């Protein structure tokens, strides 16, 4: 009976003869009639070193996995992509950069071509090795939309696996929006048809939205950051797709195309306005002010007032992040690693512990398991709160929003003289200073936050 080989077998598919290693692997019986190497693949690795042999084995193993996938895939497009990736991986395993034959003949030196011809003398005619060395598989024609699918489903699948469904949808929408915008300007192109001229057309369309010619009479409709996000998403898609396909000698047409965001005073102008302590106490915490909100939205508002959290952080609290029975009641803002219910946190600095004081503590006593109505629905929660606050005169000006709780919390800490690093820690802001110690005990943090706790009537909770 054949040995069952698992991924944990570090020396899988390796054999040794006269001190030299070879890659030896059985061809699956289901495709034996499609792979001329059936029943067994044998490739001399030309090394006595086990580490080098394992690295070369991994490259051949990936190439065969891709080849066999291409032979079993149902769709022509997917099969063509798999065959191409297999050829690229196999060429790399053999020490060559994969190029389609026309590119080899037009771009490589005579010495390089001779090197390839010498190499194929040692392999079987029409074998996968010969095909890889001589560039026998053309690059598949892949639309920019198909490239995006591959990017999402294969290239960055591991990177986005920790996002919740709502986070993933938002992330995907930003990528799809960039491709939609590009297609509107340049048309439905295959990704390898995109030229510098297409990239400049796309860039210039955004320039017209960001900095229109004064003579046109038009006004700016978008910010530089919007344009940089769209152009940047296309640049990343192009780069990551071709890297994934093993194409190393290609120039990114979107390179060095960006808009300046350095404008004096612009950041200060865009900063959200804070709620003052007086406004929160006299208007928002006033008995009856939040009475017509649903219980969970009202409680979220109260937690925001005394924690400075981002609205999404409070809306997505779960029971395991709420510690009411601890000597210092607190919440833990952290990623959820449960594959059935994942959620990412914005940055490493955003992972933090916040003591509960005042009205926030009382609100979470009513909802010790969090707020299921708004879990992974933070947009709905923000819309509900902003609409209610606006209709009930709870915003001091038209420029105030629910996020004003967060900015007001930071201002209140500053006025009370709380330590700068403590403020940054509680806000979840990145601190460039080297990290030493734990940043203070929970008891100390609780005592500091107690200095800014607002008076309230328990009946409002």
TrEMBL record:
Gene Ontology biological process: DNA integration; DNA recombination
UniProt biased composition (Polar residues): 215-228
InterPro entries, per the entry: DNA_brk_join_enz, Integrase-like_cat_sf, Integrase_catalytic, Tyrosine_recombinase_XerCD
Gene Ontology molecular functions: DNA binding
Domain of life: Bacteria
Domain Tyr recombinase intervals: 270-449
Keyword check for Transmembrane helix: no
Region (Disordered): 210-230
Key words of the record: DNA integration, DNA recombination
Protein name: Integrase family protein
Species per Swiss-Prot/TrEMBL record: Rhizobium leguminosarum bv. trifolii (strain WSM1325)
Lineage: Bacteria, Pseudomonadati, Pseudomonadota, Alphaproteobacteria, Hyphomicrobiales
